[in-house]
Specification:
This protein is mainly alpha-helical. It has 2 domains: about 5-65 and about 125-215; about 70-120, no CATH class. Helix content is about 70%, strand content about 0%. The chain is built from 9 helices and no strands. Helix 3 (about 40-60) packs across helix 6. It is elongated.
C-alpha cells in the first residue's frame, strides 16, 4: 500500500519528537487495516491505538506521568501488614469506637502514608491531561473551551479501542466500517496535533463537525 501525505506527516512527526516507535505502531495499524482478512487485525490495531493514547501525553507535555500501580501498592502494603502482625481486638457496640485506639508499628504507618502520597501525586485526571495536551500542541488560546468537544471525542474514540484490546475465547465481532471510521477519527486528531497550524485547524473543524453529527443521532 502507498502511504498518504497525512500518514507520512504523522509518522515524520513522531520521528521528529524522538518517539519513532509510536510512528511504527501507527504505520503498522494502517498497513494491517489495508489488508483483507489479516489474522487478529482488530486486536493489533486496538493495541496500537491504546499504546499511542497512553504515551502521547508524555511526549507532548514533555513530562512523564506518574502512574499509580494500585495492585503493586496493595501487595506491598499487605506484606507490611503481615510483618506488623497488628492485633485487633473485637469491640462491642456499647464501646466508643471513636476513642478506641490500637498500637500500629511505625513501618506500617509510613507505608500507608507513602501510598496516600503516591496516589495524590498521580491523581491528575486523564481528561485534564488531554486538555493540556491539546492546549500545548495546538497553541490555541482558551483551548479548554474550544477543544472540549474534540477532547471528549478523543477520549470516547480511544476508549472504544481500549474496550476491544483484550483477546477473548470467542472471535470478537466488530463492524469493519465502524472500526475504520473510528480509526480515521483517531488519525485526524493525531494530524491536528502534529503541528501544522492551518491543517490542524482544518482537521479540528472536521472533527467538530463529525462530533456534532454523532451527537445529533
Amino acid at each position: 500500500m502507498n502511504l498518504s501525505e497525512k500518514n507520512i506527516e504523522i509518522i515524520s512527526w513522531f520521528r521528529r519528537q524522538n518517539y519513532p516507535v509510536l510512528g511504527e505502531l501507527y504505520e503498522g495499524a494502517i498497513r494491517i487495516l489495508s489488508e483483507e482478512n489479516f489474522p487478529g487485525f482488530i486486536q493489533f490495531v486496538a493495541h496500537s491505538v491504546r499504546e499511542i493514547k497512553n504515551r502521547l501525553p508524555d511526549l507532548i507535555l514533555g513530562e512523564e506521568h506518574v502512574y499509580f500501580d494500585w495492585k503493586k501498592e496493595i501487595i506491598n502494603l499487605e506484606k507490611c501488614w503481615i510483618r506488623a502482625d497488628v492485633a485487633i481486638v473485637e469491640v462491642t457496640e456499647s464501646e466508643n469506637l471513636a476513642e478506641y485506639t490500637i498500637p500500629v508499628p511505625y513501618e506500617l504507618c509510613k507505608r500507608i502514608e507513602e501510598l496516600f502520597n503516591k496516589y495524590a501525586e498521580s491523581n491528575e485526571t486523564y481528561r485534564n491531561r488531554i486538555f493540556r495536551l491539546f492546549s500545548v500542541a495546538t497553541n490555541i488560546r482558551n483551548s479548554e473551551y474550544i477543544m472540549r468537544p474534540v477532547v471528549l471525542r478523543w477520549i470516547e474514540v480511544t476508549d472504544w479501542f481500549v474496550t476491544i484490546v483484550h483477546v477473548r475465547s470467542e472471535l470478537l465481532q466488530v463492524d469493519n466500517n465502524n472500526l475504520n471510521k473510528k480509526f480515521l477519527e483517531f488519525e485526524n486528531m493525531l494530524h491536528a496535533l502534529q503541528g501544522n497550524v492551518f491543517q490542524g485547524t482544518k482537521d479540528l473543524d472536521e472533527i467538530l463537525a463529525e462530533t456534532n453529527r454523532t451527537t445529533d443521532k
